């Protein structure tokens, strides 16, 4: 599906929501939908189109959606992981066949427990024994489901079945294709899961999530470094604390990992700012730390902030008069 760009962010936000909805239907009722593999390939092309048009905007929406809600967690998580894998595949120089299999595996790795995964994200109590066993078995159940859907790509099936297997650190070039894809998908899966909230816990900041990966040992390799290189220490769609006491949202990646393009949205007294203050390169307060979305009480308007991001790239100062934040003070 091709995006329409006469009104870029109206289209982008709507298309991103439509993509998640289409994937949710495919993953929730896979055995009732004919042509599963073909439809999944179409969703991959759709995802590629959205990312290719504006990768910073795509990252902004992915991180915003991943960090702000528990509703529809399973398809949202799959889209975020597939999007990050798509960007990483180019950075890591994966051959096209491996890239294609990696994306298919990212979109379907939890097909064995889609409904349960959505339920668990909303559940406030610990897993019962039946749920715990279903979670344990979901990689194998996912493979069996894909085989019933006539998937014959053994690398795809194996990657889904083993995507939670912990591998010893080794250069990607020395790994077999299956080990390589499991290493990449496992790192991305863990990273995206740490950022996302549950009813039983808050999501972590992107920086803290990277630190957790580092502590894990098995993730402290070139995949993690590539993740930093492609999305930054402060990815678009995440929040940062500034040295002047303000809180800013990251709009786009910058010239360096430590200097993304940002706009202040909360002043030093904790009040929302209208209009948001877009900081020009080289003339903004320093970032002191990353913030988890759960630490903020401000409810930003996704559409308006995304528009600010694309117009900041175009140098359109007129947008300051267009952005409106719910509940903001003049």
From TrEMBL:
Organism domain of life: Bacteria
SUPFAM superfamilies from the UniProt entry: HD-domain/PDEase-like
Protein name (database record): Phosphodiesterase
PANTHER family the record matches: CYCLIC DI-GMP PHOSPHODIESTERASE PA4108, CYCLIC DI-GMP PHOSPHODIESTERASE PA4108-RELATED
InterPro entries to which the protein is assigned, alphabetical: HD/PDEase_dom
Family annotation (Pfam families): HD_5
């Amino acid at each position: 599906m091709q995006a329409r760009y006469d009104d870029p962010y109206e289209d982008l936000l709507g298309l991103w929501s439509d993509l998640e909805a289409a994937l949710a239907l495919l993953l929730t009722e896979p055995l009732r939908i004919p042509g599963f593999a073909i439809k999944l390939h179409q969703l991959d092309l759709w995802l590629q189109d959205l990312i290719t048009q504006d990768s910073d905007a795509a990252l902004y929406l992915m991180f915003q959606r991943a960090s702000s809600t528990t509703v529809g967690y399973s398809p949202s998580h799959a889209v975020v992981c597939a999007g990050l894998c798509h960007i990483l595949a180019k950075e890591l120089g994966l051959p096209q066949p491996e890239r294609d299999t990696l994306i298919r595996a990212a979109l379907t790795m939890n097909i064995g427990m889609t409904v349960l995964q959505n339920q668990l994200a909303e559940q406030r109590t610990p897993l019962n024994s039946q749920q715990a066993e279903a979670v344990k078995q979901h990689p194998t159940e996912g493979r069996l489901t894909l085989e019933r859907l006539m998937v014959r790509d053994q690398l795809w099936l194996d990657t889904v079945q083993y995507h939670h297997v912990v591998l010893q650190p080794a250069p990607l070039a020395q790994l077999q294709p299956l080990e390589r894809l499991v290493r990449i998908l496992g790192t991305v899966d863990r990273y995206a899961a740490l950022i996302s909230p549950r009813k039983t816990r808050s999501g972590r900041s992107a920086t803290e999530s990277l630190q957790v990966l580092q502590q894990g040992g098995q993730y402290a390799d070139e995949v993690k470094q590539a993740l930093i290189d492609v999305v930054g220490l402060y990815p678009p769609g995440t929040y940062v604390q500034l040295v002047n006491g303000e809180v800013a949202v990251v709009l786009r990646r910058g010239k360096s990992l430590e200097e993304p393009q940002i706009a202040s949205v909360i002043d030093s007294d904790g009040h929302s700012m209208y209009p948001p203050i877009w900081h020009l390169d080289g003339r903004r307060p320093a970032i002191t730390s990353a913030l988890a979305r759960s630490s903020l009480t401000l409810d930003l308007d996704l559409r308006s902030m995304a528009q600010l991001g694309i117009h900041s790239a175009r140098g359109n100062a007129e947008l300051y008069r267009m952005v409106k934040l719910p509940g903001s003070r003049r």
